[in-house]
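Quick log. Single chain, no ligands specified.
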Amino acid sequence: MSGLNGVTFRSGTSRHYRPGCLHSLDVSDSSDATRALVDELHGDPADYVKVAIVDIDGVLRGKYLDKAKFVSALADGFGFCDVVFGWDSADECYDNGSYTGWQSGYPDGTVRIDPTTHRRVPWEGGRHFFLCDYVGSDPATVVCPRRLLQRTIDRAASAGYRSFQGMEFEWFNFRESPQTLHDKDFRHLEPLSPGMFGYSVLRQTHGQDFFGALLSDLRAFDVPLEGLHTETGPGVYEAALIYSEALEAADRAELFKSGAKEIGHRFGILPTFMARWNTDLPGCSGHVHQSLRALEGEANLFHDPEASDGMSSLFRSYLAGILELLPEMLVLFAPTVNSYKRLVDGFWAPTRPTWGIDNRTVACRVIPGGPKATRLELRVPGADVNPYLAVAGGLAAGLWGVEQGLELDRPPTQGSGYADESVARLPRTLIEATRLFADSERVRGLLGDDFVDHFAATREWEWRQFVDSVTDWELRRYLEII
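-> predicted structure:
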């Protein structure tokens, strides 16, 4: 059968798996790339390969496979319990999902390894690592975020486009461990550094070993950073990832978040990508930069040197599509209850579907960077976003605008986007955004009923977990006085 990204695998062949017998496996009819990969694995003294999928919340779920088992799985895939799409980030099983549940007995579903994602993990002694796609029992049913993005990329290709994207993240760092976090009941945490000190050369030295490891280890992990600096807030860093084609960009973003946490633990540092952890501090962004190129050629199709603002008509239709669908797709960019605590006026996060030229108060910041760098920065996503859904959502909405031939009839916002009342405010809560998403026929046409139904059910579940919980705010407000 034809595998991902043009790599050809054999299917329908019975394999005899014996632990440790890597070289006895028949790979004679595999592609040259696959045979080279098998040879590389055979020459490596390590016995196990690390593999992972991404779940609906953007959390990596994986395991170590014996090398011989891994090679067998290159052709045929391997089984993975479908509960990874039947529970939330706390491993609580959904009671409202139809994809899987107690009613189905949580069977194994098929996982396919993507050999083009091959990396070596430098903080695990150079262990081989691969990302995988969760196919499940029916390939036509897509709930896997990475497969959803691949389908959206295919749609772009059928229209003649390649999507280039790059993500950037802000995140807080604490001198804590998972154990101390729980021992302290998530209170009185010690930030990596005190005070508000963005772009500080001085503050970098307060965690120099960690800072340096992020730069070197992530590059060795094929997640290269374009820039890394402190942001305003105690212990806050910001990293911009070097842009690439859309799937690779999402892979890098996913592995960046996981990698930063794994590297941090080595230094007694706990990073968090929560959208906003403290009422008194700004939240953490996960901005997505994007542009289009033709399938053949390197020209940036968003740039038009003849236009006064440098924006091509293609760019204007793409942007119009995002602005039109942003309220209905907001839950892809703000997927948690906490996401909406970041989307408040005056805290460096947009609250309306607005656009502007190099304006950091709007949802869609147009960056007129010339022939190479003209691009759109979607500023709605927070650091808590699932990168695959953020990239897929923006790309799907933009392509829809192009397909519909939309005109960019909204003028650019001048000055503060928070004061621009020409457009309605974005949804204020997770449940409001989820209902808009689930009820949108346009979104269903772009993403498919299977994905929309599953994702909406998981967000409705997330909301119910929140509204059923007693919060610290309620205790402080009511316990003594009422």
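The CA atoms of residues 200 and 230 lie 6 Å apart.
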